[in-house]
Specification:
By secondary structure, the protein is of the alpha/beta class. It has 15 helices and twelve strands. The longest helix is centred in the middle third of the chain and has 18 residues. The chain binds ligand V47 and iron/sulfur cluster.
Length: 378
């Protein structure tokens, strides 16, 4: 029985209980101060348990950022480096292969691969990162490249997005990560990342990927210059594409980290905002099966709480994370499997190891195989 009692939330509660879709205005109400956070969380938890029961999903993965040199200058980014700067790097084939070997040696099922748009690295170099890894370690799932990179490859090769995606699938890409979404609304996007792929290109990439049979994730970067209506607009755009293709697996709200960025005067969002954004996202995105509380970015305590505010997944063990640590994240760079399972159990959920495509993983040490697909929740 729901305890939600605020008058302002009554119509929303009725819709959630009946499994009906929430409107743009409902989204704004959920973000308003008049909507008590515990009640918003309780509604989100109802949806979370309806879709995913008590499961707390995690995976065993490694990050690879093959270069941090980038032609763009997104104001929120602390990761990028200038060409020929002391911070800038570009990995060679041996370094890329070593990262794959390390992943296999540690029982990983997935490599998460994103990076900068290097001024001088050719398309063949980016393709080579994927083909080297896929040929050497075919068992590793390569979740690689955001629409920002795919758009860059399309400019480099003068070929359509669909061609780039097909060529990357041929090289070994298994799915797309959720990055590069930021905030779609041009009032914000034009101020924080005006030159990179716009929302039309972002959606074109995911639409094409889904049509080609790839699954993908999606994200939203919040807690900087955007307002609630930009966030709700963002969520509804994602919901619309999902109605069309059904290809998104997971949504990941990403809390802005200000250190070393062009927006360092802005304060990092607090845990209340983090939990509200998770809950509102769970309630608005009624057609996306999973919500990820990325522990690296939220911090472990908030990620644990988020498992009762709509989230059913806390991402992976992670290794070699740079994007958030460059921007001031104080979380560890890696968690062991025991630690990650313990933090899920402490939050009262059942730890379930999954692969990138949400199949259960059966594991003995570093040896693993995938079991049945985790029923895609309605
Ligand atoms: O696109 C960059 C964001 C994203 C900052 O698909 C920042 O499973 C906060 O998309 N503060 C990349 N956010 C990370 C990402 C991701 C992470 C984990 C899992 C998955 C997945 C995807 O990080 C970027 C941008 O939106 N970002 N800088 C910053 N200072
Ligand atoms: Fe480059 Fe990506 Fe950073 Fe933007 S967010 S500056 S595209 S690395």
């Amino acid at each position: 029985m729901l305890r939600t009692s605020s008058e302002i939330l009554r119509p929303i509660r009725e819709k959630v209980e009946a499994g009906e879709r929430l409107s743009f205005d409902d989204g704004l109400t959920l973000y308003s101060d008049a909507a008590p956070l515990p009640e918003v969380g309780e509604l989100a938890n109802l949806v979370r348990e309806r879709k995913n029961g008590d499961a707390g999903y995690y995976n065993i993965n490694t990050h690879l950022n093959p270069t941090n040199v980038c032609v763009y200058r997104c104001t929120f980014c602390a990761f990028r480096a200038d060409l020929r700067s002391a911070k800038g790097y570009l990995m060679d084939e041996e370094q890329v292969r070593a990262r794959g070997q390390e992943a296999v040696d540690n029982g990983c099922t997935e490599l998460h691969i994103v990076g900068g748009l290097h001024h001088q690295a050719k398309y063949e170099w980016y393709r080579g990162v994927i083909s080297t890894l896929h040929e050497s370690f075919p068992e590793l799932h390569l979740k690689a490249w955001t629409p920002v990179e795919i758009d860059w490859f399309s400019r480099q090769t003068q070929k359509p997005i669909r061609w780039v995606l097909e060529d990357m699938i041929d090289a070994g890409v298994g799915s797309l990560p959720g990055g590069g979404a930021e905030i779609f609304h041009p009032e914000v996007r034009n101020k924080i990342c005006e030159h990179k792929a716009d929302s039309t290109r972002w959606f074109e990439t995911h639409r094409n990927a889904h049509q080609l049979g790839l699954r993908s994730n999606c994200t939203m970067l919040y807690g900087h210059i955007e307002q609630a209506y930009h966030r709700i607009d963002h969520l509804i755009r994602l919901r619309d594409l999902q109605d069309e293709t059904g290809g998104f697996q997971t949504f990941i709200p990403l809390a802005f980290h200000p250190d070393n960025t062009g927006l360092s005067h802005i304060k990092k969002p607090n845990a209340l905002m983090d939990l509200r954004t998770m809950a509102v996202s769970r309630l608005m995105l009624d057609n996306i099966a999973h919500m990820k509380a990325y522990w690296i970015m939220l911090g472990i305590g908030t990620a644990q709480c988020a498992l009762a505010y709509g989230a059913d997944d806390i991402d992976g063990t992670v290794r070699h994370e740079l994007i958030y640590h460059d921007a001031g994240a104080e979380t560890p760079e890696i968690l062991s499997v025991e630690q990650i399972r313990q933090l899920i159990e402490e939050a009262g959920r059942e730890p379930v190891e999954r692969d990138t495509l949400y199949h259960r993983v059966e594991r003995e040490g570093n040896a693993w195989r995938t079991g049945e697909a985790i029923a895609a929740a309605k």
